[in-house]
Amino acid sequence: MRKCIGIILLIIIAWGILTSLQTMPFGVSRAKVANHYINNGKDETGAANIVTSVVINYRAFDTLGEVTVLFLSAIGLGAVLATIKTREKRDTEKASLILSTGCRFLFPPIILFGAYIFIHGHLTPGGGFQGGAIIASAFLLMYLGCHGEKRLNDRCSTFSESLGGLAFVIIGLIGLAVGTHYFLNNFMPLGKFNTLLSAGVIPIIYIAIGFKVGAELSKIIDLLMEES
Amino acid sequence: MNILYDYIYYAGAFGLIFIGIFTMMVKRNYIKVIIGLSILETGVNLFLISVGYISNGTAPIFSNPGIEAKNMVDPVPQALVLTAIVIGLAVLSLALSMAIRLYKHFGTLDLQQIKEQRW
Predict the structure, then answer these.
(1) Which of A39, A62, A214, B76 is deepest in the core (most CB within 10 A)?
(2) Can you give the pLDDT at residue B98?
(3) CATH of the domain at B111
(4) Which contacts (CB < 8 Å, 24+ apart) does range B35-42 have?
(5) How much is the ipTM here?
(6) Which domain holds residue B36?
(7) Are A183 and A64 contacting, i.e. CB atoms less than 8 angstroms apart?
(8) What is chain A's mean pLDDT, rounded?
(9) What is the pTM of this model?
(10) Does B86 contact A70 at a Cβ distance shorter than 8 Å?
(11) Which residues of A touch B61 (CB under 8 A)?
């Protein structure tokens, strides 16, 4: 019964989509706003990666909202899981020496790679969110490989999370006060194109986002691993 | 067949979306519903990316001086999908924490047996 209802509903949705997609040619032209970003984004923002200049410069307010959603989800996760009282104890076996040593050996290079990804966000395909996810994967490796030996430092992760969020908002407010007076204005000098120290505030905001996202995702992993 | 060749990305994206919606409607296990949500989200992301594609286009990055602007694909859907992936991760983690709570409270993940969740 449920399957029949589901299939009928899907056929209705598919018919609607098919009729609307027939007017949409595939792979032919860009939208007007995309043409503006591609032709002028290089000179206006100084970032080689146009996606970064859209995320951090043209639509930075949107990104602030996105970071807030991630923050709210981390808080919600903590609130949902915090009230569980009984924690069952499970039999765990200690990881072998090769596994735990390998994880400890791999941890610093993965953190370094994540930092490279978010520092070079305006030059290469990468950025704060991707770099933060890589850093969180390093913590996940530590939790899986060296089970129960090392935990995330709670104060340290809260500190870097708050620092990242504050840096984002404060840079935005400075942009409101200086120059052309709008929120998250790119007020710093653009520098030489396609070098590390270019694109004004974009690398700074991306480093702040990288710290924030890395700390939040590590905290989510920490909370979920603690319960299971 | 020509239509399928032209619209293969749309077909794949909506195939994933339909699989996701069907899984979410039909399955009774809460974990499977979350898996369906994840597949649905992947399909939506693939659709958004393929809307901005240009035939023989390159990534919108001026990494070499020789790259021309006229071949680049649309950067706006890519920025939106970057947002959507992070939001999807947040939703997924929240749903999984709900699954932990449900299992601790009711002792099962079958949505039919949880009285408040029946439809």
Answers:
(1) A214
(2) 86
(3) 1.10.287.3510
(4) B37/B91, B37/B92, B37/B95, B38/B88, B38/B92, B40/B16, B41/B84, B41/B88, B41/B91, B42/B16
(5) 0.79
(6) 2-54+73-117
(7) no
(8) 82
(9) 0.82
(10) yes
(11) 48-51, 123-125
